[in-house]
Amino acid sequence: MTLKKRLQFVGVCFILFSLGLLYLQSNHELALTQRAMTEVSEGIDKGDKAFPISLKKLSGENIELAEYEDQNIFLFFFTTWCEICSEQWNHLQAAKNEGFMDGTKIIAINLTDEERNVDDVIQYAANVPIDDVTILLDEDGVVQNTYQVAVVPTRLLINKGGIIEDRAYGLMTFNQIKESSFFQ
């Protein structure tokens, strides 16, 4: 083999080797991109995985959000002095009576550090018109800060996979519940 042919052979090998490295690198980047697209980070917005919550019920029993991961969750932040929050219960009860809440767990988180005292919350809870609701106390505001709740009511619709499908402020009416694909 002549020197010219050897140099051509080495040149072709070098080019093929370089192209192979580029190809391997591009596959690696593609794998990273695909993995990043399938992993969902925890957060507070639509599409995020809901942050873990561990709070006490009115009875003192500790509850974790993960206990309800096999159900859709209507997560509702409220205070006793919020008039719109009080209206929300009636809309939820109407939707429940019509079967729209079947398969959905209603979890209401009281922003207890925004209240005068826990006794007000206990008295308020006794008059909530829904029998199957879990009321939790955020006594030190940790969950309120984690979920950046600045307005009541704030509600999150969390699916069975723990992903936040919707986050909104204000009243969710019976008609909005009825029309929402989340409750179907």
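The above is record 1. Record 2 follows with the same two-line structure.
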Amino acid sequence: MSTALTRTALTRTAVAGGAIVAAVTLGGCGSGIDGSATPGAAPIADTGTSVPPSSSPAGTSVAGTPVPDTSAPATSTSSTPAPDGAASAALCPTAYLRVTLNRSAGDADMQGSHLPLVFTNTGSRSCTLRSAPGVSYVSGNGGQQVGVPATRYPGGAKVTLAPGASASAALFLSSAPQKSDCHQVQARGLRVYPPGNTGAAFVPLPTTTCSDGGPYLTVGSVRAGVANTGA
């Protein structure tokens, strides 16, 4: 598996999961993305703050096992892969990360939506991330997980985030749940476990997903920059 994850690889896994429920019909993209907050419901947690986990933080990797990285990464001064031999820096903890979706850099096709999942260092020291986050849909005020977690494509270089710097992971959201007769559920958003962490952040994303079949999400490794869609 190449370090630079391609959009084709991200898309293929989620689309294959959707086909288990029903064949995806051709037509509009039907991404189900709505950036507005859920009416009458308080957020599960502010973006970037910890929420109680309801499942394995790592999700499912393409090799069948989670691959969190908790080793001491290397330091640089920006959101770039750390050079060999650089001084040691700590893993970026969830408490010092703001997790968002970069909709302005995303796009959609007939199979779903491609969005950068952005991690911004809100702390006062440089820290590092490596590999793929854990991602799942959640619903209700208690953040109940809906369906299976995202398929993860782990690996990649360690990325150092200076204070205020950001990196992103390519997230694919299949549109199959909007176009099949599965058991549909209204999700409130995403539970995201940054790489190497067991504390999660909540990202608002009201949409329709399925509690059966799937996975309907795939996510790649964190890379430098805020516009990584897997292209």
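The longest strand covers residues 112-121.
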